[in-house]
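The passage that follows is intended for readers who have already worked through the single-chain material. We present the inputs for a multi-component assembly, then the predicted structure in tokenized form, and finally a short commentary. You are encouraged to pause after the input and sketch how you expect the pieces to fit together before reading on.
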Amino acid sequence: MQKVGIVGYYQVKLYSDANYGHYEMIFEASRGALDKAGLKKKDISTVISCTNDYYDGRTISNCFTVEVGGGYMADESKVEMDGAHAVLYGLMRVLSGNHNLAVVWGGSMPSCYPYHTVRLYETDPTWERSLAYVNDITSAGFQMRAYMEKYGVTVEEIAKVAVKNKKNAAKNPLALKEAQLANLTVKDVLDSGKYADPVTELMVAPPCDGVAALLLAPEKQALKITDKPVWITGVGYNQDAYYLGDRDLSGCKSMNLAAKMAYNAAGITDPYSEIDVAELFESYAHEELIFAEELGFADKGKGAEINSAINGDLAINPSGGALGGNPPCATGLIRVIEAVKQLTGEAGQYQVKGAKKAVASGQIGMCAQNNILYVLEAN
Amino acid sequence: MSEEKVIVANKGLIRADFAFWVGQYLDKFYNGLENKKIRGNKCPKCGDVFVPPRKICGKCNVVIPLEENWVDLPETGTIMNFTTTPYRVNDRSSRKTKDWTIGMIQIDGSNTSIIYRLLNMEPEDVKIGMKVKIEWNESTKGDPSDIKGFTKV
Amino acid sequence: MGRQVAIASAGFSEHASKRSDVSMPELVSEAIEDCLKNAPSVELGDIDAFVNGNMPAFEGSNIPELWMTDWMGARNKPLLRVTTGGTTGGTVAISGYYTVAAGLPGVDTVLAVAFEQQSQGDTSVGLASVAYGEISILNTLGIPYDQISRLLSAGAAIGVAAYQATTYMNKTKIKEEDLARVVVQNRRNAAKTWWAHLKMPNLTIEEVLDTPYVQYPLRYGMVCPASDGACAMLFTTEEKAKNMCDIPVYVNGVASVANESAVLGYDGSGSAQVDPSMQLGAIRSSELAYKQAGISFPRKEIDYAEVYAPFPNQQLLWTEKLGLFEEGTAPAMHEAGVTDFNGELPVNCSGGVNATNAIGASAMERPAEAALQIMGKASNQVPKTVHTAIGSGWGGSLNLITLMAMSDQPKRQWR
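Having made your guess, compare it with the prediction:
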């Protein structure tokens, strides 16, 4: 795969209820990314955005964001999944040879819509939806129980992931304030209230307002735009069966296959030793363990044994991950940006020392039905 | 964030009704539910049985012909997974109230699970692998609510 | 970087105002079956990746590509979802092209699917909520929502088309007969297209004009229907296409440009300030796509065109803006029979959007039909040999134009 570089990025500070207009937030992100790269509107060749009509409460909501996103009179398109999938489409447009600078942005404002209700609209309206027994809340419970039953993983081991991520978020100035919990303990997590047993409230990535943007350019241009481009050396994406009853929820086959596709392109044969840092979109604490196993960082059921602290053997979510703030349509994109920061040495207090290769993931659908994984390398 | 005054606020409700065509496969299934019968269909290639029935087997990518491969299934099944939650979600909002327990139940003879309430069971007593059976609604309409939930066998 | 992409097949489901016999996933699988039927050497398992799109607000179902995974044959395969309002189908097709052009390892053959089952929802509410940001200002002034609902047509698609029509008619001095002529041409063509919705083989101009106005100058008889339907296209590499079909159709140019603003009413979408028949997006899209395809003289080099036009004035407008005819000459060209089935530059022989409009699918059905004309496999196949064709889309909010330029020769210009 030819090298495409990430040459600029910007993420707004996450708020549970930002006192912003949606368009202002998008402009801040898109403009911020261009400014970081020292580029102008006229340099933009293509724009790919990621929003969702149901999150914006408006039909064809993405067409009204063209102006503020930088896409006015540019060759642009829109994705309706996770921000990380928008990065994929931007990547494909650059790889095609048709475009030399792609702006990719995504985000939404859950403070303006009923999150769980909107997630309910993803379900099968001809079978499950009217009863609403299947929703994003119960799905979490099913997935965690399936994982624990299969491998004997304990609630404490899963709670430790939440503790780690919320503590990491406290070092990340852009993370959601309510998720920045530097003194959190395992007991706090287990006592935080029943969400969908065995999941507790603090194990759930909190929806919040946010938008992020990044810029992609082919190798030649990337080297001219910045002296610290980060290369996308592999990408994989995969979609599982829809019905929860059709899947083995103790694992994540779509993440496994997405990883295979990405590793194959990037030439990764031993992920645990080759990858220095992983930024994974974990909707729930237990998903981080499931993903780590599917990514080949540990055997099945042994995800909890990885030393995934910032200065550990393989840092996972040093930024706090989605547990540090989950702005739908931006979360996966932010994971990519956080991985980029690690590789350019711009991760401040949560910098993983000497990071050279990273992976970043995004997801969409109940129990991570569709996953996308990037392999990123420092210049 | 600074204190900003709200200048204009508009509050109102716009009603948008949706009615979904279920297709011919589910149509037959719901006719069965109305008669308190469970019918699935079987993939001619791998033999997997689906409840509710489907046009295409996702594993094999083959079409299961509409008039063939129907299987009558019993009212009993096995609990494959379950969760207890205080949350209720509907098409307008979500709220927290008393706990209820939802299970993923594999109907005997099928290869997937359906998701319904577990009735008359304390969460502590629910075990994966437990045998359960359908509790039907008094009057059935031919829609998913005909199955009220599952109870211990 | 990148590689040549070819279309190996295209397929459709039956379109009707109510496809009550199928659920949404089944409707989609119908189009996929038809697409694969036209490329018999390809099985569902041979597809490397999928692209899917529709207008989710019209069915009340969010990101339905998740639900219909198995029906598409997409289980444990890569899948991307793209939606852009009325142009969704066009952008899904373009995304199918990019997925192949990118050359990701192992991704050579891509199935792009676009669909809509509007009968399930309330299309007028769906359309209204495009404009509601502006309409709610009227609420604030004391006008209740129900009373505004008829005004909403002024802000939604037909209202915009009406503004485009009046400004265009003002420039070209055409009459309503010229609009009706386009409608008659489209619907008589639709009668010969197996999957189309409004099949009217004997329609006359008088019959079209004998219907009441919806909004001047557009009459009920001129307006597109609301259809349920799906479309699928098969994209692959130059090498593989040769084994899948007799005449691979090479995608040589793609573009989707919009001059859209955050507020409806700015910049040519229907305000009095700017002329909405200017169509900056269409002009720029055709510049980009033709340059990429090496087309310098579209009027001479393009043999066939499927131009997205739910309303007849738009067919006149965009055949000009997309460079097929000189400014202001489209009505005369239509009257002279240039755009007829056996004319020099046939347009919309499938019946176009004016005869079938499943919103999510219709912008894909344009390049799909154009590709089939090049392959010689279209339902209403024109007598002349088609070497180069275009398929366009219109939508977004109001000014996004997608364009795909195709040919039986791989002629893509490389950067």
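Commentary: The two ends of chain C are 9 Å apart (CA to CA). The CA atoms of residues 15 and 219 of chain C lie 23 Å apart. How closely did your sketch match?
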